Amino acid sequence: MSTQQSRSAAKVMLAPAVVLLMAWMLVPLSMTLYFSFKKYLPLRGGDLGWVGFDNYTRFVSSSSFWPAIGTTLLIVGGVLFITVTLGILFSLLLNQPFWGQGIVRIMFIAPFFVMPTVSGLVWKNMFMDPVNGFFAHLSRAFGSEPIQWLSQESILSLTIILSWQWLPFATLILLTAIQSLDSEQIEAAEMDGARLLGRFWFIIIPHLARAITIVILIQTIFLLAIFAEIFVTTAGAFGTKTLTYLIFQRVLESQNVGLGSAGGVYAIILANIIAIFLMRIVGKNLSD
Amino acid sequence: MSHIHLKDVSKKFGDTEVIPPLNLEIKDGEFVVFVGPSGCGKSTLLRLIAGLEDVSSGRILINGEDATEVSPAKRKLAMVFQSYALYPHMTVRKNIAFPLRMAGLSSTEQGKKVEDAAKVLNLSEYLDRKPGQLSGGQRQRVAIGRAIVREPQAFLFDEPLSNLDAALRVGMRVEISELHKRLATTMIYVTHDQIEAMTMADKIVVLQNGRIEQVGTPLDLYRSPLNVFVAGFIGSPKMNIIEGPQASKYKSASIGIRPEHIAISDSTGTWKGTIGVSEQLGSDTFFHVKCEFQDQSITVRAIGGLELAYGQTVFLTPEKEHLHRFDKDGLRIK
After folding, report:
1. pLDDT tens for residues A3-32?
2. Which of B123, B163, B300, B316 is the most exposed place for a label (fewest CB within 10 A)?
3. Residue of A nearest to B148 (CA)
4. Are B216 and B275 part of one and the same domain?
């Protein structure tokens, strides 16, 4: 189909896009690497020369490093668990024929369109505020002391906010997967004596396996980088400092670009380790 | 061992009545074929028997017991679906074992029954493959295997051969017939292909618009169709139906004559016509003959490779004893 000439023409025409993309990725990456080996304090003397792996050891030995990793994993894991579980249930529900199905489906996607900053603020002020929040009113209506969500249950609160944001995405992907399930398979299982739970466990869940891994993969990539939700709600207080947030604090609050860059390199490594694991699982599921 | 009895069974989807109340009795060990054009309600009828659809009125008796409200699993019927409906993530072994596993059999019992079924269906080599790695015919056999391990009261087949190519279809037709002879279990088979119906059935049920047009053995239906619809539907090529003055000669609104019951000659005969298309099959030849009194050409079968040229004038003579007469409602005149 393609001649020698058309192939080389294609290469020439692709080149600008490739070069642009490479520059887009490689320039920030190499700058991060460059700064991570420097003592660079913009407001306290600027570039103070090379320091080798000093930034790397300092970032890891800082007392906030391991808690930040823990918080990151806790939030990511919690959100994944909630969105996948509820996503499966909601997609089963939305797949049933009912009056107003189209409207409900569109409404259901709505949280995904709300900007992270906005949703963080809405949850903080309208739901989780210990004085005027909806939850506080609810607690008082039952005569109990309102929970100070963002300070007492800070990680749980963030997990709830993020789950609310990401549930539509998970549900949408799982809904399309459920719609592709052959109804004759369900009927065959019914004839074979599988009850409701049996059909769910042996037919529907295996059918969804691929979609579930894709949801987990994509969400993990995005959840590792969440920032706005933490910034507008707790600003990293009450143990909600994730790795991303810690890097932000090192660079902007402590004005230590070198240390923050070293943290950035750790984040890249962590994301890649997780990505490799997930890609393996997805690859295994896709090859079946 | 079972006989199935449908009493005044009807089915409505919303306001449209797909199946008006009908009665049907299926005897123990019979091979019954539901046949009809697409949309005639034959699959719906099968699904009513399976319990996958609820009846709108009437009762379904299995072995004399009312099964109308019984769930599909408890009716002890096994179904083979048109798409086979194999579970794609399970191996052939697990697919066949699934109903046993759901019934709570021990894994050794499951294993033994699966091996037995696989042996019967020549699937032993494929037990550890997944459905995606099998050919159409093998998938079909896995679906049948999944049905036979349960030792059901009756088998239900929903157009099981329509996804196979022509050569395989003939082979599977014979295999299913042999399976029926060996198991001697009641089988209900749905198809739109009258050849499948003719070759496999003990009893054919011809359906149109949800109504039963005729029930009988293949030869009953062939020799004495009760109405014009059955006459035209059973037999290949189709029976010639002739209306108008030619039919009134026989004191009927329309007459039917099968292609094999017309004599063709180049000199004398009852009807004069010209040869149109001719189909040479070697063993016999089908001529499409254009007659003045009929828009549609009349199909005639001549044994052997009789050669008549396009446009040649010929004379047709129907065999009187094989002439079917129908009244103005399309019903057979005795």
Report:
1. 888 888 888 999 999 999 999 989 989 999
2. B163
3. A192
4. no
Local structure of residue A37 (DSSP, 8 states): T
**Contact at CB, B85 and A190, closer than 8 angstroms:** no
Is 90 exceeded by the pLDDT of residue B205? Answer: yes
Task: Give the pair of three-digit tokens for residue A253.
Answer: 């609050």
> Percent of chain B at pLDDT above 90?
24
Min distance A103 CA to chain B CA atoms (Å): 23
Residue B73: its chain A contacts at CB < 8 A? 190-195
Whether residue A127 has pLDDT greater than 90: no
- Separation in Å, CA A250 to CA A58, A228, A243, B170: 11, 16, 11, 76
Give the CB-side neighbour count of residue A123, counting CA atoms within 13 A. Answer: 27
Supply the ipTM of this predicted assembly.
Answer: 0.80
Q: Is the pLDDT of residue A34 over 60?
A: yes
Quick one: closest CA in B to A185, which residue?
B85
CB contact under 8 A, A192 and B50: no
Stated pTM of the model: 0.78
Is residue B334 a part of any domain in this protein? no
CATH code (residue B291): 2.40.50.140
Q: What is the CATH number of the domain that holds B207?
A: 3.40.50.300
Least Cα distance to A91 among A75, A64, A109 occurs for A109
- Structural domains of chain A, ranges and CATH numbers in brackets: 43-287 (1.10.3720.10)
Q: If you write DSSP's letter for every residue of B158-169 in order, what string do you get?
A: ESTTTTS-HHHH
A150 has a pLDDT exceeding 90: no
**Contact state of A187 with B87 under an 8 Å Cβ cutoff:** no
pLDDT tens for each residue of A42-52: 888 777 788 88
**Contacting residues of A for B99, CB less than 8 Å apart:** 192-193
Checking phi first, is residue B263 left (phi over 0); if not, alpha (psi -120 to 50) or beta?
Answer: beta
| In the block, residue with structure tokens 């198991």 | B183
> Is residue A198 within 8 Å of residue B102, measured between CB atoms?
yes
For B182, the token pair is 């060996």
- Containing H/E element for B59? strand B57-62
Distance of CA B316 to the CA centre of its chain: 32
DSSP assignment of A230-258: HHHHTTT-TT---HHHHHHIIIIIS--HH
